[in-house]
Task: structure prediction
Amino acid sequence: MTVRVVTDSLADLPPGLAKEMGIEVVPLYVRFGDEEFKDGVTLSPDQFYERLTEGKDFPKTAVPAIGEFTEVYERVGKGADGIVSIHISSKVSGTFNSAQQGAKEAKVECPIEVVDSLQASMAIGLIVLAAARAAKRGDGFEEMVKLVQGSVSRAHCLTLMDTLEYLEKGGRIGKAAALLGSLLSFKPMVGLRDGEVHSFDKPRTRAKGIAKLKEFVEQHSPVEAICVMHATAPEEAQRLCEELQAMVGGDTPVISRYGPGLGTYVGPGGLGVGLIEAPKKS
Result:
């Protein structure tokens, strides 16, 4: 059996890991003024954050076109027994809808299952990795779809931001709220619940925010898989990774970077965790 796994760059999968696992990643578009780039293809994370913090144009992002998904499905579908395509929550992005429409137009003989992860960043990426491991084991299409749907119900993510500045610049909150945030000097934390973004907490210091990330992992333990995400804080991410591994055991957590889709609003200094809870024993 050959089942192919597809996602998009909003899953924030490390490129080397995606290639190693045979995962097809459809890139997001990023625009700075009149310049347009493909996330991870013609624009690296370092280049993105340099432009975000030092450039005169604030970035705008756009989902892959329907035709791009169609092309990918037709290409990877040759000789495949099925395609499982996993994407960011449909409540925060049009990517899932674009993938659905692309699947309808694709001329392939195998079935295509487009899955709404109801999540973002590596909470999607961990689901995608679980699917890719199942594909390497030789699991069948229906078995993989069932596995992915089960993983979706157990996936969670939480992000700590260093500032409200980029949320305000991106139009996600009003200027008054941004001003209030700077006066109070709190560190906003957001996560997804039922596919929608919700405020999680407002710690007054970054240290307290990192402690909240650890508490979040503890609350969802035992975990099946875990990831630490960061924007521009690799050393801090590595320390958190080591501390979480000591807490939960198992394999070393994956470290990933927030791409433009979330990095535009999280901003430099963003730090987060994504995880999949272990199945509850019956």
Notes: The mean pLDDT is 92. DSSP finds eleven helices and 13 strands in the chain.
